[in-house]
Every structure is written in C-alpha cells, then in structure tokens.
Amino acid sequence: MTRLSRIARDEHNRVDERDTMFARNARRPNTPAYDDYYSRHPELKSIDDRMRAAPGLCGPNAQLHDERIAARAMGWFEKIDSIVPDPEIVRDWVKRVRIAADATETVREMFTSLGAVAAGFSPLPEEFIYTLKGRHDEDYGSEIDLDHPTAAVFLVEMEFDAMQAAPQPPTIEESAHQYYRAARIALTAAAILKALAVDAKAHYDAHYDVILPPLAVLAGLGELGRNNILIANRFGSRVRIGAVTTNLPLTHDTPIDLGAARFCELCRKCADNCPSHALTTGDREEIRGVRKWPTNVERCFGYWVNLGTDCGICMACCPYSHKNNWFHNLVRACIRHAPFTHRLALWFDDVIYGRDWTPKGR
C-alpha cells in the first residue's frame, strides 16, 4: 500500500472545491454564493476582489493581450460545454470492450485511440474527491457523492513549440486547446463505459469532482514536481490531465519512480524562473498529509490575471519538458536509474538551454 493511499483514508485531509483558486475567482458580488463564501472567509475577500478586478485571462486590457489569439483560446474554452461524443466511435469501442480478453488493456488502448498520450488506472481514495462543489453558482455547496472504486486517468500532450513561447499568448491558446481535447476524450470515454451498462463520470475543465495530479501519480503516470504539476514520462510538465471515474472492474496500476522528485530537489529551475515567486526553492512540506512543495496560489493566479495568459514558464523551463525524442528520453532514463548523473544532467541542461528562461518565438 502506498503512502498516498494510506493518507487518503483520513477525511480531515479532504478539500472543499469552493476553496480552490478557480472557484474563488468564479464568485460574483451580490450573489448568494459570493455572500456565503466571504461570510465564512472574510480574510480572502479583499485579495479575491483585487484579482477579479484585474483584466483576467484573455482580457482585452491584459499586459500580453493578443486579440486574435485570445479569441481562439476563448473559442476552445467555450466549445467544451457543447461537446457531443461521436456515436460511431462509442458503438465501435463498446463492441471492442465487450469482446476483450483483457478489459483493462483494451480500455487503456481506447484512451490512446481517442488522443491521449498515456493512460493509467488508480484506486479512488476519498482524499482526492472534493467534498462540496464550488466552481458554478448553480450547484455551489452541493455535496459530491462519488463512490466509484477506480479512476481512469489520462494525459494529453501540450505542443512543445507553443510552450516555448511561455508566458506569451500562444501558451493560453495551447492550454485551452488541450483542455478541450481532454474534455472530449473524457466525455467520449464516459459515454462508452455508460453504454456498457456500467457507471462512469467524466472529469474535465471546470467540471472536476476529483483532484487529478495525485490520482495521476497513483495511476503510474508520473511524479509531482516542485511546480506542483505532474512530471510525466517522455513529456515532463507539458501535459494536461483528464479522468473518468467508474465502477468497471479494472486492474490498478502502481506509482512509478522517474527520479523526478529527487532531481527537483537539486534543480529548482522552475522556482528560480517563476516571475510571481509563487514556487519555493526550499524543501518539501507535509500538506494535508502529502509531502510536496508548497505553491502560493494567490501569487501564481494573480500574475495570470494581470498578464492575460496562464504563464506556463514553470512547465516550459522544466528539464523534463524537452521534446519526446531518443536523446532526451536517454537523459530521462539516466536520471531515473542513475541518481549520480543528476548534477551532470542539470549542468548540461543549463549550458545547452540556459539557466534563465527566455521566451522563444514560434
């Protein structure tokens, strides 16, 4: 049993979605949800009001606003709630899963066929299920009742060149595009599982009942980095995560050791280059029972809403986020299996790619 799964049994460590930064930013003055939240958290009201008064992501008065790119990015976000799974794809995969000798591997293949670059299966501890909904006013404060035993977690890749522009506008367009892709995959996969007469729920942008990064760790898809983002094999931090929770019997994967957390202790490149100083250069801490590096979410999000993009510097500058090719995969393998190479690998990364982040044009 892993440390994460042991910790997960402690309900005191569960998170109320209303306390997440995106949910706090979704509150609007003179609404019941706004009045309720800040009656319970008056210490956050002035902080959050200042962020709501900022230009916002893709806002026309933001520091890095690009009208055309912002329109395309918002177009991706707006299309998420109109996604309808392709019925032909659903019918095809229902047939395949029904006759599969190994349902687990067939469902994994299903996710990659739909566009994921990796998929894994984890138990669903209560620790990683939100207690109450908070993102939307219409179900604000509703209890989340999710008793699925399994989370099918998958990754979509963020395009390398777009992320090299971080924090310039191409990063928000790429981010929006991959949030859309993850939503389409999750909704299609959930439709397939439901057509098999099993229970399933898709979790995607603005519609999460679960906390995805730790579930991705449990599903063997990577490790949490200093930037508190998943570091995935072959893609580093250049991924977005989606999930479908279900009661379909699937074999659970196990966490993997990429050497990433040990490398992060030495590297600190994301923290050194964070323009908002939201990431720590210090040691990991015990946060809700999980040992990880803390992030100052107000500093991070506050920088986003003034810049107009979701930054992405900590994702782009990560040495694990280089291209998925034989050379970088060889370096990743050395870091994974030979800890004594860490300092040398970091030295070469600094020499070849630079220690200080500079956005690259597309």
Task: Describe this protein with a few key phrases.
two-stranded antiparallel ribbon; 16 helices; disordered N terminus; 362 residues; four-stranded antiparallel β-sheet; 44% helix; single chain; alpha+beta
Largest sheet: 4 strands, antiparallel
- Total number of β-strand segments? 8
CA-based gyration radius: 20 Å
Give the overall shape. globular
- Residue runs with pLDDT of under 50 for 5 or more positions: 1-10
Coarse structural class: alpha+beta
Tell me, rounded to a whole number, the average pLDDT. Answer: 95
Strand line-up across the major sheet:
1-2-6-3
DSSP strand content: 5-15%
End-to-end Cα distance, whole Å, is 45 Å
Topology order in helix (H) and strand (E) letters? HHHHHHHEEHHEHEEEHHEEHHHH
Number of helices: 16
How much helix, percentage-wise, in residues? 40-55%
Account of the 3D structure:
By secondary structure, the chain is an alpha+beta fold. Helices cover 44% and strands 10% of the residues. It contains 16 helices and 8 strands. It has helices at residues 3-7, 21-26, 32-40, 42-53, 67-79, 87-99, 103-114, 160-163, 170-195, 212-218, 260-267, 269-273, 297-307, 313-316, 326-337, 342-353, and strands at residues 118-123, 150-157, 200-203, 222-224, 230-232, 239-246, 285-287, 290-292. The strands form 3 sheets. Strands 1-2-6-3 form a 4-stranded antiparallel sheet, with helices on both faces. It has a two-stranded antiparallel ribbon with strand order 4-5. Strands 7-8 form a two-stranded antiparallel sheet. Strand 7 (285-287) and strand 8 form a beta hairpin. Helix 6 (87-99) packs across helix 9 (170-195). The protein is globular, with a radius of gyration of 20 Å.
